[in-house]
Design a protein that fits this description.
Blueprint (H helix, E strand, L loop, with lengths): L2 H7 L3 H66 L10 H4 L1 H18 L6 E6 L11 H12 L6 E7 L2 E9 L8 H4 L7 H6 L15 E8 L1 H94 L5 H28 L7 E4 H11 L1 H6 L3 E4 L5 E4 L1 H17 L8 E9 L2 E8 L29 H11 L4 E5 L6 E5 L5 H4 L6
Parallel strand pairs: 6-8
Antiparallel strand pairs: 1-4, 2-3, 3-4, 5-7, 8-9, 9-11, 10-11
Helix pairs in contact: 1-8, 2-4, 2-8, 8-9, 9-13, 10-12, 12-13
The structure holds adenosine-5'-diphosphate (ADP).
């Protein structure tokens, strides 16, 4: 059985239901958080790449203006093609040009229905106040100057309920060429001075980042995508996990049901077999009963006929003897019918087993058999420490009586009859025994003697029912009975097991 099924089986129904809800929820939540982080991170990196691309193309423009346009203008001015006081930010200031180009770019984006991208060349000391760094940008300018290894900064921001990715990186480091316009005021072109009367943009130093490029792009769509993707996968996973646990539970239930059904089928088969055996036994029984009842009837009929004939012929000398035979046959039939009646009762009448002393049972049987025991001078020895048994006492007395009766009946003429009653360890566990020094039983009959009407000596006065009755009683108690004998003339031992109280079963007083 797999681990989830074992776990399920070890829980009560309420805990199981809780587990079915809680475990998928926890697992799905963990996956959802991980998934959300991974997806949003991927989308943010993607957005950052797009920003970098915008910045790089703007950086290209800055460099073009500084490295190509400016030298061309300075040459033209040096050659007198442009007057010394000429200055126009529209064609000279890279930040002016890039800012205006970005505004136009946003205008084009709008036309395409795309959200605009905030862009600023933010500075502590701008020439144009629109470029004045806000608090965060000013802090970043300081950060990039103090920590040269930090090359960029990004942050997800929420403004008026909308998500943005804020991105900043230091602008080109100020060099000596930059200082022409951004150094001391008196060194700047006259046209520039005329346009910007204040100190803004002047007095910068080489080797310093005087500005940062600061961008803010809306990322609502990306975040919504991350949420939708996460929710769909999580709901799917939740459903899968719930299905998995449900399936596990279902499998456990089906397995339990299948086991129950198999047990039921096995039980039914066993009962069918038992019924078949009983039917077969009943058939044998009916056959034997009718056969055994017939023989005294035949005797009675035969002798009654000869009595009638003798009366008719006036011969009275044999009548007494014949009538005696008729009486004997009738007695035999009566005994047979009594035993049969007794046997049929066994199936129905069995009292509730109670704990009884085996000694009491033996003594009760001996009291009933006092007359034959005394007549035949039988010595009975009883093991002193016989344990108590849980039995229907009356029936047990019958068992003991039958076994003792047989021991008396099948005694030898050679030795005085001795019967031993005790208990000993056998291959089938601790068993009681009734042992005699009688005529013994041939090996091949040790089992058949327990069958109905099975008598080894047909002339003996028994009915052949006693041992069948004994076996039935023992089996009703859940025990077993068997006979052992070394052969004719060697005596017989009848062993039987019975349910013992737990302590007695392990009692080592009976080796
Ligand atoms: P019954 O004694 O009425 O004939 P049982 O069923 O008691 O019937 O015994 C069946 C047969 O088993 C007996 O006829 C006898 O041949 C044999 N038998 C039973 N007990 C003993 C015994 N103690 N010693 C020898 N043979 C026995």
């Amino acid at each position: 059985m797999k681990l989830p099924e074992r776990l399920m089986n070890s829980l009560g129904s309420k805990d199981r239901l809780r587990l079915l809800i809680v475990v998928p929820l926890i697992l799905a939540s963990i996956v959802a958080v991980g998934l959300y982080l991974a997806i949003s991170n991927y989308l943010l990196n993607d957005a950052t790449d797009k920003i970098r691309n915008v910045l790089l193309s703007q950086r290209g423009l800055h460099i073009y203006i500084q490295k190509i346009m400016h030298p061309t203008f300075y040459r033209a001015r040096d050659n007198g093609k442009v007057t010394l006081d000429f200055y126009a930010p529209e064609i000279f200031s890279s930040s002016f040009i890039v800012r205006n180009m970005h505004e136009l770019y946003n205008g084009e984006r709008k036309k395409e229905g795309l959200p605009i991208i905030y862009y600023k060349m933010a500075s502590h000391n701008p020439r144009n106040p629109v470029n004045q760094a806000d608090e965060q940008e000013a802090a970043l300018i300081r950060l990039f100057n103090e920590h040269r290894n930090i090359r960029e900064f990004k942050q997800v921001q929420t403004i008026n309920g909308h998500k943005y990715l804020f991105y900043a990186r230091p602008f080109l480091e100020t060099n000596t060429a930059c200082l022409r316009c951004h150094g001391k005021r008196e060194d700047a072109p006259i046209g520039l001075l005329a346009l910007y009367p204040g100190d803004g943009g002047f007095n910068e130093q080489a080797g310093v980042f005087r500005a940062i490029e600061s961008l803010r792009v809306p990322i609502n769509t990306e975040m919504t995508t991350a949420i939708i993707a996460t929710s769909s996968v999580s709901v799917g996973l939740l459903a899968l996990l719930a299905l998995f646990f449900f399936n596990t539970r279902l499998r456990t239930l089906v397995r339990a049901k299948t086991t129950d059904l198999s047990l039921e089928i096995e039980e039914r088969k066993a009962r069918e077999l038992e019924l078949e055996n009983k039917n077969a036994e009943l058939e044998r029984f009916t056959y034997t009963v009718s056969h055994d009842l017939k023989s005294p009837l035949i005797t009675i009929k035969g002798f009654a006929g000869s009595v009638m004939k003798d009366v008719h012929n006036g011969r009275f000398d044999r009548i007494d003897r014949d009538l005696q035979r008729i009486t004997e046959a009738a007695d035999k039939m009566g005994a047979l019918l009594n035993d049969l009646l007794e046997l049929s009762r066994i199936g129905r009448m069995i009292n509730q087993p109670t704990a009884c002393s085996m000694h009491d049972i033996v003594r009760e049987a001996m009291r009933i058999l006092e007359e034959p025991l005394t007549t035949h001078n039988v010595t009975v020895t009883i093991q002193p420490d016989l344990p108590d048994v849980t039995v229907d006492k009356m029936r047990m007395v019958e068992v003991m009586q039958n076994l003792l009766e047989n021991a008396i009946k099948y005694r030898t003429t050679e030795a005085a009859p001795v019967v031993e009653i005790g208990m000993q360890e056998t291959s089938r566990g601790p068993a009681f025994f009734v042992r005699d020094n009688g005529i013994g039983i041939e090996q091949s009959y040790l089992e058949t003697i327990f069958g109905l009407f099975n008598k080894l000596d047909t002339r003996s006065d028994g009915t052949g029912i006693g041992l069948a009755l004994v076996r039935r009683i023992i089996e009703f108690h859940g025990g077993r009975i068997w006979a052992e004998s070394q052969g004719p003339g060697m005596g017989s031992s009848f062993y039987f097991t019975l349910p013992l109280p737990a302590a007695a079963a392990t009692n080592d007083k009976h080796p």
